């Protein structure tokens, strides 16, 4: 059987990832004792990719549906402080986690209702809630970082598994991979997934075909909120059980970049889960590699920016060549 | 036999405009009814009522004997009324199969049933005798004709009983047109009712059993096509004699103004030679996609010149063109785009903005624009063009198509163009305004301007132009004085070989 178009769309991001990894492995700075690609570094990159990765999963859905969620980073912060505050209040951890997921979902549904009910352009609607949710996060946390005590199963989500276990990667990373697989199946094998693609590709047609576009859109933004809640929990882990109102500042842009590097189209209708995850890893690997190679921070930013532009240009060229 | 769909005394208003007045129409199972009329006659409004986009203010409809009043398009689809629009309604990134099944997926508990869905999609395409469309291909990569069949297949999956085709052949090649007709005959055999909207009368005669003519929102004639001459239909459509439609303003060709030598662009035009004189109206005929718009756009400098020369006579002698729109405007060349809404005008801006956009210099006072001077000039132009509007600052998007087009043409005169490239200038304009624009074109020629008029409406070319050139596949195949052409010979030249009637007898 012939490879489907979705497989083709992954070629560019995958090649990009291999090239980035290759460039950094090829050089070995004199002051570094180890090579670039070690199992330790792979695990580290996987862990660092988890937050952007899980966010990119959510962002993939909304971008395929032809929308955007600029409030993602703020929802992440709101969720992380909610978790810290509720744990500090002495709530049982499972309840606190459920609460956080609920907050994320609610924030997403608010975005969805703004887009469908008030007919705001997604960019504007989520630009507004980006500020508003950030404000709520600062209000909940009284503009301070909140240290909380979390049970081990929650606080070690992103920790490296003990060397004697066969787990290889942190639990959180496995969680991202499993969620990614589930999401990929939902997008390709369910009626909901089909509708998400249809709305992003041609909303008028979707409406004409009797699809309840507003319902699907609210569901999409709600789902994004859920993914951002998980990203918030990861961030809480990353800061050693701390909820920070400044968490995830600007992170929505990294998530969007990951989706776009992975072949997603901001005009909707195109995008893939695996591509977005590859995009997230590529970005982390880049940042990590730049540190390894001793590239200065300002230079890093220029390089990463350039790579995003190159990735999108190449992807478009490949798409039109096919 | 009882009609499948009846529409009785349908009326519809938009603000002060009466779009439809007491229109009646019915269609039987196994019948193809042509809905004929000029642009603006109300065909689209009527069909939007059938398909649930608009609701009628008066009248009633029945479907298979039951009352029928769709509140939105999905409603109509459920009842079995599908519309194939000129601009296709497809999700370009989704596969053929997904598009055919869109909104009617075969699923259990929200999970797609790939095998069942595939079966349904394949069966629908098979009913259209189509097996050359890959079910997995993204629809956006298919040719238009294949996309159209995907949309028809979708209607079949939705158990459509009535299918409305809105100008379905306007972007098809001749061969694809014949295939589409085969498909429509297939639908007719299967007992569906088909409403076929077109203003290509030859096509209508080819595919339809019965016809209804709309003019100015009213049904003015109806009957069976057998035994009706096309001349009768044309008279019903136009509602007046052609001499009244095309007022002649006497003018004579003078010195040459534009010279094209071996002009080629990508993908068209191809090796075009043409001279246009002052005081001359040159018509360009051809099928959609023959390269007429590409030719005038290349002359104007919107698409690059691949080979050959464009030269225009300006005050400073012969000047090469085709490099940029700005350069062309500065040398007295103006273009009216065929797509008034997307390109020709900035609909969110005022009449004054649209009129003066290409030449703001006269209103510069210091570094600022003198809005007062501009307003005065604009209202003079509006008077001269007979443009009816609330004022110079009214948004142009709020005007009727005819009044919009007057401003689009006035812009060229305002920028002092000597050579006017008019691409389908009467598209979507009511009959009365058309006559006004024809008179204006004649007057402009009389005042010494050169005009290239691209049109798909042959009576218009024959009534207005001094010479007509016919394009086919990017080439200018023949240029003759208008008196040496007839509709038949133009179609003959435009299709490259055979006329529609001749083609039919061979299939």
Describe the structure.
The complex is a heterodimer of chains A (about 325) and B (about 500). With about 325 residues, chain A is mainly α. Chain A has a single domain, classed as ABC transporter involved in vitamin B12 uptake, BtuC (Orthogonal Bundle), CATH 1.10.3470. Chain A contains 13 helices and 2 strands; from the N terminus they run αααααβαααααβααα. A two-stranded antiparallel ribbon of chain A has the order 1-2. In chain A, α1 (about 5-25) runs parallel beside α12 and α7 (about 170-190) crosses α8. The longest helix of chain A is centred in the N-terminal third of the chain and has 26 residues, at about 40-65. The radius of gyration of chain A is 20 Å and the shape is globular. Chain A starts with a helix and ends with a helix. Chain B is an alpha/beta fold and about 500 residues long. Chain B is built from 19 helices and 24 strands. Chain B has a 6-stranded mixed sheet with strand order 6-9-10-3-11-12, sandwiched between helices. A 6-stranded mixed sheet of chain B has the order 18-21-22-15-23-24, with helices on both faces. A 4-stranded antiparallel sheet of chain B has the order 2-1-4-5, covered by helices on one side. In chain B, a hairpin with a 2-residue loop joins β1 and β2. Chain B is globular, with a radius of gyration of 25 Å. The model of chain B is unreliable at about 500-505 (pLDDT under 50). The chains are: A mainly alpha (about 325), B alpha/beta (about 500). At the A-B interface, α8 and α9 of A face α2 and β8 of B.
Portion in beta strands of chain B: 25-35%
- On the 0-100 scale, what is the average pLDDT of chain B? 87
Q: How much strand content do the residues of chain A show?
A: under 5%
End-to-end CA span of chain A: 18 Å
Number of strands of chain A: 2
Rg over alpha carbons of chain B? 25 Å
**What is the global morphology of chain A?**
globular
């Amino acid at each position: 059987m012939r490879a489907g178009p979705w497989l083709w769309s992954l070629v560019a991001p995958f090649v990009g990832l291999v090239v980035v990894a290759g460039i950094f492995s090829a050089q070995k700075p004199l002051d570094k004792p180890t090579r670039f690609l070690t199992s330790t570094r792979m695990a580290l990159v996987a862990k660092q990719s988890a937050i952007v990765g899980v966010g990119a999963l959510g962002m993939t859905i909304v971008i395929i549906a032809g929308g955007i969620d600029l409030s993602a980073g703020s929802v992440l912060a709101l969720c992380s402080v909610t978790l810290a505050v509720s744990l500090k209040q002495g709530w049982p951890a499972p309840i606190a986690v459920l609460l956080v997921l609920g907050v994320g979902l609610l924030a997403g549904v608010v975005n969805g209702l703004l887009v469908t009910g008030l007919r705001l352009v997604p960019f504007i609607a989520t630009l507004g809630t980006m500020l508003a949710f950030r404000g709520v996060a600062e209000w909940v946390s009284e503009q301070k970082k909140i240290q909380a005590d979390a049970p081990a199963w929650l606080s070690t989500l992103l920790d490296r598994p003990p060397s004697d276990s066969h787990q290889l990667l942190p639990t959180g990373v496995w969680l991202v991979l499993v969620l990614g697989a589930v999401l990929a199946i939902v997008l390709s094998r369910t009626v909901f997934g089909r509708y998400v693609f249809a709305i992003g590709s041609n909303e008028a047609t979707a409406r004409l075909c009797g699809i309840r576009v507003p319902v699907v859109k609210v569901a999409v933004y709600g789902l994004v909120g859920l993914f951002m809640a998980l990203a918030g929990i990861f961030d809480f882990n990353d800061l050693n059980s701390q909820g920070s109102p400044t968490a995830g500042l600007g992170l929505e842009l990294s998530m969007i970049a990951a989706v776009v590097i992975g072949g997603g189209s901001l005009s909707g209708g195109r995008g893939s889960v695996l591509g977005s995850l590859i995009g997230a890893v590529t970005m982390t690997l880049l940042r990590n590699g730049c540190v390894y190679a001793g590239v200065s921070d300002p230079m890093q930013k220029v390089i990463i920016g350039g790579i995003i532009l190159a990735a999108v240009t190449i992807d478009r060229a490949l798409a039109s060549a096919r | 036999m009882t009609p499948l769909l009846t529409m009785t005394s349908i009326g519809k208003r938009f603000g002060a405009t009466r779009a439809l007045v007491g229109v009646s129409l019915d269609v039987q199972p196994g019948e193809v009814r042509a809905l004929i009329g000029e642009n603006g006659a109300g065909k689209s409004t009527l069909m939007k009522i059938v398909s649930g986009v608009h609701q009628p203010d008066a009248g009633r409809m029945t479907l298979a004997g039951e009352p029928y009043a769709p509140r939105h398009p999905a409603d109509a689809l459920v009842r079995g009324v599908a519309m194939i629009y000129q601009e296709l309604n497809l999700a370009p990134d989704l596969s053929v199969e997904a598009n055919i099944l869109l909104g009617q997926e075969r699923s259990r508990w929200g999970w797609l049933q790939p095998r069942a869905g595939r079966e349904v999609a394949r069966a629908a395409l098979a009913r259209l005798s189509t097996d050359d469309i890959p079910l997995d291909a993204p629809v956006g990569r298919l040719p238009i004709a294949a996309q159209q069949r995907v949309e028809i297949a979708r209607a079949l999956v939705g158990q459509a009983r009535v299918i409305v085709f809105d100008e379905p052949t306007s972007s098809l090649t001749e061969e694809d047109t014949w295939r589409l007709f085969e498909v429509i005959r297939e639908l007719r055999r299967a007992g569906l009712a088909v409403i076929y909207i077109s203003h290509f009368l030859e096509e209508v005669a080819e595919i339809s059993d019965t016809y209804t003519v709309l003019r100015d929102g009213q049904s003015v004639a109806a009957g069976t096509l057998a035994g009706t001459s096309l001349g009768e239909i044309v008279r019903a459509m136009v509602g007046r004699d052609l001499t009244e439609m095309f007022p002649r303003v006497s003018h004579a060709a003078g010195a040459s103004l534009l010279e094209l030598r071996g002009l080629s662009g990508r993908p068209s035009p191809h090796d075009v030679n043409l001279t246009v004189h002052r005081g001359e109206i040159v018509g360009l005929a051809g099928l959609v996609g023959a390269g007429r718009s590409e030719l005038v756009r290349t002359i104007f400098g919107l698409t690059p010149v691949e080979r050959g020369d464009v030269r225009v006579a300006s005050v400073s002698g012969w000047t090469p063109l085709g490099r940029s729109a700005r350069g062309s405007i500065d040398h007295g060349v103006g273009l009216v785009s065929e797509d008034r809404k997307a390109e020709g005008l900035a609909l969110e801006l005022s009449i004054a903005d649209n009129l003066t956009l290409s030449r703001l210099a006269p209103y510069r006072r210091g570094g600022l624009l003198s809005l007062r001077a501009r307003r005065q000039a604009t209202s003079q132009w509006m008077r001269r063009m007979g443009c009816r509007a609330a004022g110079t600052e009214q948004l142009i998007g709020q005007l009727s198509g005819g009044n919009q087009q007057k401003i689009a043409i006035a812009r060229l005169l305002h920028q002092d163009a000597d050579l006017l490239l008019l691409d389908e200038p009467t598209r979507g304009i009511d009959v009365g305004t058309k006559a006004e624009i024809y008179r204006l074109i004649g007057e402009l020629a009389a005042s010494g301007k050169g005009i290239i008029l691209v049109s798909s409406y042959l009576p218009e070319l024959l009534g207005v132009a001094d010479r007509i050139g016919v394009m086919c596949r990017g080439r200018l195949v023949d240029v003759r004085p208008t008196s040496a052409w007839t509709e038949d010979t133009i179609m003959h030249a435009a299709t490259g070989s055979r006329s529609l009637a001749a083609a039919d007898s061979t299939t």
